[in-house]
Amino acid sequence: MTTSPRTLRAAPRNIFTMNQNAIRIFRELPSGHSAEVNPYYEILKKSCKNKTLPLLYGPFLKEKKGNWREEFENSPIDLILEIGCHKGSTLCQIAEDNKELGFIGIDITYKRVCETASLAVSKELQNIRSVLANGNELSYIFQEAELSGIIIFFPDPWLKKKRQKKNRLIKREFCDIIRNLLKKEGFVWFKTDSEEYFTEARDAFLNSGFKQGDLNNTFFKKNYESTFESRFRKQGLGKYESIFIVSPSISLVE
Ligand SMILES: C[S@@+](CC[C@H](N)C(=O)[O-])C[C@H]1O[C@@H](n2cnc3c(N)ncnc32)[C@H](O)[C@@H]1O
User: Fold this and answer.
1) How far apart are CA 143 and CA 221, in angstroms?
2) How far is the CA of 100 from the centre of ligand 1 (A)?
């Protein structure tokens, strides 16, 4: 039987929200990827199934919401998420200096997720999990107040065309979501090379009930230069950075 797009559109919404398989983040990777085209496809699948690398994707994320602490041997009290962790260089540096914390790095490419996990293994870091996930899907995999901090260094600024701005991760709706996923006084550490993105993101954080903080509001004793930060510094480009803290005392005024 074929189903017309019209029938699909008419289906009640709760069929999709109730069925975890329908949620994109929990889906198995699409079949038919050739190892020659993307060798990381097989690496990701096999390493996750056999637990040979500390990485997770799709169906393996289904039971994680609310249970991330148990992922780590020492059940850390505080969990830090890095969104857009790239090849894991910054995540590994921070995790190496803060072994009592649990770190979860997410990225949207198979290759970067595999490379982050491999780097963590090569550095013998037990406190990192590398996850294939989109920053827009966090509420499916994290529970309210499950995170103590979120790192977002140099998210794609989408500057080339005006209409691309809608693809930016940090906007008011996103800030409202992550505010709920953070503990009281949890932090977001944000850096970008785009002044315009910084200004818009700062307004979104402040309007969402965050207040501005500093490194003392994190667990970290020093700043860390990310891969893109170093690349941009060498090109003489600017850097805009701030730490935002969840502030339950602020009344939310639109
Ligand atoms: C410009 S790079 C910055 C990498 C790293 N944070 C740094 O500062 O060196 C942006 C990274 O974010 C990832 N990314 C882009 N959109 C994302 C999204 N919606 N969710 C998670 N990661 C994303 C990209 O794959 C890339 O690794």
Assistant:
1) 27
2) 25
